[in-house]
Design goal:
Strand content: 15-25%
Helix content: 40-55%
CATH topology: L-fuculose-1-phosphate Aldolase
Mean pLDDT: 96
CATH superfamily: Class II aldolase/adducin N-terminal domain
Shape: globular
Amino acid sequence: MWQGSLTDQLIRLGHRAVAAGLVIGSGGNLSARPPGADECLVTARGTWLDELTADDFSVVGLDGRVPGGNAAPSSEVQLHVAAYRARPDVNAVVHLHPQASVLLDALGHRVRLITLDHATYVRRVVTVPYLPPGTAELAEAGAKALAGANVVILGHHGCSVVADSVELAYKRAANLEEAALATYRALLLGDVETTAAPEYFERLAAG
């Protein structure tokens, strides 16, 4: 079954995300699908990402149906489904609650990509103003933002990060928070401008 490998990958990602401080408690939710599939695996409602088991995943169709697995997918299931609909190239969606990223955005500071890893993995950060969690409005706004980026900060809430693999989605989420922490430290030192070299971004865009 296609679910087995993806379940294992998402379970590992959940452990790593909690260990890295990218989410606590039952916050956040994860999903993945085989390339181009019209169904995805989504973590179930109320699950703790560092305690996931194979029973903690719902099979969800891109039409919103739940044909298998746990009968109660995450309350943010619409955010995941909308992302897959908007981005056929996406095979993993990671929704976490990285505190530095959310704090900087709430205070009106953009997260600056300062190191080459930040630039390589994140490329661009788009923000969406606060919308109620678990709503179609949030899902629609998040999906629309993904038209120009792979990393979206959801105002006063968390992030929505997409990629063509579970591993890359995690790297993007981790680098987003590292970039936020670097930005925070730069602000404490009085720096409001420094980013990675502009020519590096140009080379990434050309490649």
